[in-house]
Amino acid sequence: xxxxxxxxLFATLAIGLLWAxxxxxxxPVLLPTAVTPAAVPIAETKTKKEEKVEHxxxxxxxxxxxxxxxxxxxxxxxAAGSGDAExxxxxxxxxxxxxxxxxxxxxxxxxxxxxxxxxxxEKAAAQGHVQAKQRLxxxxxxxxxxxxxxxxxxxxxREAASQGDSLSALRVGxxxxxxxxxxRNLGKAIDWYEQTxxxxxxxxxxxxxxxxxxxxxxxxxxxxxxxxxxxxWLDLAAKSGHRSADGExxxxxxxxxxxxxxxxxxxxxxxxxALD
Length: 276
What we know:
It is built from 14 helices and no strands. By secondary structure, it is mostly helical.
């Protein structure tokens, strides 16, 4: 009888330890099969509070405010509605991002946040917001969410460029080079590219402008190539990190005399020194 009582006591203690776990936290470690299913739903079912928190987190991501509260997103919308240009731009950016996500996973309802984003871009641009003008111009070039309007895009790019945006200045040059929204004019393209090439604060835009100048003088769209000038600009573009410039420079180097190469390198060095 004593042995039976000891066996029952040991079994009771063992089940208690298995239920409590090593720290007594109430974690079932090795429960009988009949008990396990009852514990699973408790562990996996989310409370209403958890579902609400998850919903708020997703909403804050839609507004581009990861780590911020939904109240902040609502505040940005409120500020945008009251006429704050920066808030209008930020709200438009968030809506455009949401529209991009919907392309990958379309919602059940037939809505396009890009249409609202464009309206906010328009409001911000009307107040002189440079980035809003540039983003809106991009949309009028691609026709994403609006009817393509290259002429309007060029006007917006020019306005943003006049306010100091080098990427917009680069795109004005490209418009004149290719005749997008205006008549083709290589002289004006060169002028805009030369302006952008001096922008040391935006090395990517400056490098692309230098590369485009090299391609123009190389003969793309011109009757006669100027290898010295082409080499100079491609050399400057390569030194600014442009990936394609070095290959183009090596191609024309084989067609140039040593004196021309020396002249081109000297011109590039003098241009850089004048910029500094």
